[in-house]
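Q: My labmate handed me this sequence with no annotations at all. I'd like to see what the chain might look like in three dimensions before we decide whether it's worth expressing. Could you predict it?
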Amino acid sequence: MIAVLLLLLAAPAPSGVYFEQTTVVRSQAAAPAPGVRSRVWCAGRRLRLEAADAASGPALVLRLDEGRALRLDPETQTATEIDAERLRERSQADAAVAAGLMGGPDEDELRTLPLERTRTIAGHACRGFRISGRSLQVEVWVADDLPVRADLFAGFLEWSGAQQSLAGLVSAFRALPGFPLETRVRVSVLGEVQETVSTVTSIKVLTPPAERFEVPAGWRTVKEHANSSEVPR
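A: Here is what I predict for the chain of 233 residues:
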């Protein structure tokens, strides 16, 4: 979750951005889980996330410009209005737990150092940086040839609670000279190291079609069940 969140720390572009990424979680106590592929569209205060392996699968749309969250299900042609406040509380809780696991890093404790080598990721030359804290190490590879930087998703971070719980880490990312195309997060919890690697496999700076953030014509819209415990991740 943290690596995915940090990959969404990219900067303001008047048009917007689309990228595809793969996330893999590794733990000393278990075999590596299969990578999760996803697609992300962002334009201003509108965000759409969906699985890359399911061409007609569900999507999560966040419309911060309207204070709405929607789950779109093509199979049933249904748009479910999610309780935005409950979704936000869940996101804040996740960010708070992550901050606790990382020992509550802040700007005074985190250190950022450049790495010597360079890499090519998604066709872009990248420089590496290591951000280190008490129980946290983040390796980030950024491209400086893209017209996006570390603030495009600031509104989503503020809404999710990450800015509050992970202020030091968010600040460290925003100071990086480019767009992060790979983020490798290592966290030590009770002596066990867990690593999450998120890699952008393709990226385009573009104006996403407005319909990406709308309920398609002819679909029905329903309210989320009041006592439902399921929140899209």
